[in-house]
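Obj.: predict assembly geometry.
Materials: sequence records (below).
Method: joint structure prediction, all chains together.
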Amino acid sequence: MDLDTLLLSRIQFAANISFHILFPTITIALGWFLLFFRIRFVQTREHAWEEAYYFWTKVFALSFALGVVSGVTMSFQFGTNWPGFMEKTGNISGPLLGYEVLTAFFLEASFLGIMLFGRGRVSERVHLIATFLVALGTTFSAFWILSLNSWMQTPAGAEIVNGEFMPVDWFAIVFNPSFPYRLAHKLLASGLTASFLIAGLCAWQLIKGSATGGTHKALRTAVFAAVLIAPVQIFVGDLHGLNTLKHQPAKIAAVEGIWETERGAALTLIGIPDEAAGTTHYAIKVPKLGSLILTHEWEGEIKGLSEFPNAHPPVAPVFYAFRVMVGVGTLMLLVALWSVWKVWPQRASPRIALPRPLLWTLAAMTFSGWLATLAGWYVTEIGRQPFIVYGLLRTADVVTPIAPANVAITLTAYLVVYGLLLITYVGVLKYMAENPVKHAPEAPSGELGKAGA
Amino acid sequence: MTWAEFLPLIFMTVMGLALLAYVVLDGYDLGVGLLLPLGNDVQKDTMISSIGPFWDANETWLVLGVGVLLIAFPKAHGMVLQALYLPAALMIVGLILRGVAFDFRVKAPTKYLPFWNRAFFTGSLAASAAQGWMLGSYITGFDSGPLGLLFSLGIAITLPAAYLLLGAGWLIMKTEGELQHRAVHWARRALWPMGVALLAISAATPLVNQAVFDKWFGLPQIFALLPVPLICAAAFFAVHWVVTRPQLIDAGYGWLVFVNTVLIFVLAFFGLAYSIFPDIVIGRLTLWEAAAATSSLTVIFIGVAITLPVIIVYTIYLYRVFWGKAHPLTYN
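Observations (raw structure tokens):
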């Protein structure tokens, strides 16, 4: 394969957005968890809720900073690597990105300062409002960026004039056909990711003996959140799949590994798709189930990849990524059920004792949300190829004419920085979990829990 | 002037003001980052504390500025950022390092603190030098001849020096005691090199660009424009006057350093805006040629008209909450 500017730019953008999405996926839901911890503290005045809030605020601040710096990179790469994208879709994507900056970025960035450092300087009520506004800001941000992403998947409300997209109906653009499903799917994914992050780090604290009162509160909250969200996510995921079948049948054909159009299609559980041969080797199939799940009829018709010559995505990455996502999602549901089964009898007790295997399982699944989220995004984004705006604009037509060497330099730099940061981030979370009580540079100037600033 | 012609003008103004806000606000953050190695361990913590609650919101002005370029002038966005591909990447990597160092330096194990302090400084330096280079390259119309590169290099040195002065001015306002005295000392050291560099650039700009020369030195505008360099000079000497008189700092006039440095930034900015207008990519694209469709601009205009005043209000609120001298930061 030639390492040309198109491929390098795609790798660079993929690396960038993959790195970026890890952190918003945590902060979108973690913001609401923090608000919950804070409200519970205000209601009960239990010190343990304060501890939970304090500890997870630190995790939030760290994740948020990484999300911000990698997000700034994105806003530049639209122009540096995909100038054709903005030239051709700027009239649509511009306003959507603009509203994200105006309604979300400033809101979350400004009130984060007050949320993190404002205690003692503002009243408890203002501090609670700041926490709420930060959570709201992250959610607004998800709203706008997913609207744009969904529009690229299922473009609506626009017409093409002289090769440029022109807006016709803004309501149709914002609430394009796949947007409600994608937004719900993403927000729930964030909920699961944050739940398992909290549960995993809390389990690690229990294993290592560094648990505080806040650990037990946070663990219980996370486990209950996970068991509520996981089934809803599976239901919403199914709806999202049906929506994709309607608007992007080629993506579904790749997901399911269906090569020729058929009725009563089997569901391929696993196998090795071979695009050159047009078949899936060693496939394990359940007869008729594919049609049943996708069309809700035993004999429903599903279009095969051969119907989309030169206009379907590469099969293997989409096929595998989908199975990773569903596999991890299913595992999350099972572990959440197991956890709640153990936690439920102790719901009134201030301390939770869990069996060792469960603690280790939760700790091992700390970042399972990342895996499922990335796999899910690969399904939907690689599944959109070879188009950048589905069916209307090809990715190859909007790439920068910059020399491959320059892209290779920046790609290498980004990969080194991102690799370093990812290792450090995970290492620091582990360190913080094992040392929940602050060490020297962050020592409070007042007593713990009182206004110190 | 019709609405369709007027809108790009509004967005040019919004973009300019957002970038000005960025340069001033993140300028003092970056300046403090550049000064960081000069403080001792306790002072380093205080220096970071003085910018901790603000930096994130400050950096957002860059996203807004580039965002408006992207949204309102999509054709210019691609052209400018491709021409500045490598320095833009360097700036981004710098901003990444600086941004994460804020958190990692206090959350990572203490033994890594010196590493993250260095990352904070290196990131600030890379970002500010890259910004200077980008500005220089932009002014010369992306001239990659030796003269153009020399000019870009000049600004790549001048802008960090100006940020440094701004950062020192910020520390004079936000700190007290020994650190404040050192900040005065740093400001004094940075002042003359920055002044000379600024003068050299101002003199060189009309020379590398004939259109700019005509705009400034024609009659009668030269008389109308004369106050710009004069006020600049007055602001410069006001800073000089304060930093060479410790008793003025002790009497509470330290804020004059920051305010006058900001004034120099604002005037330099307006000088630049005047030189370039109405081009958005010098000599290649006017702002009307680069503008997005009127209907799209109208949609964003509504958003800007509603949200920008609100953003300004809560930004002022943020500064009021953290008004006064900086203390060690704590989440409690």
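Conclusions so far: Chain B is about 85% helix and 0% strand.
To do: check interface contacts against the pulldown list.
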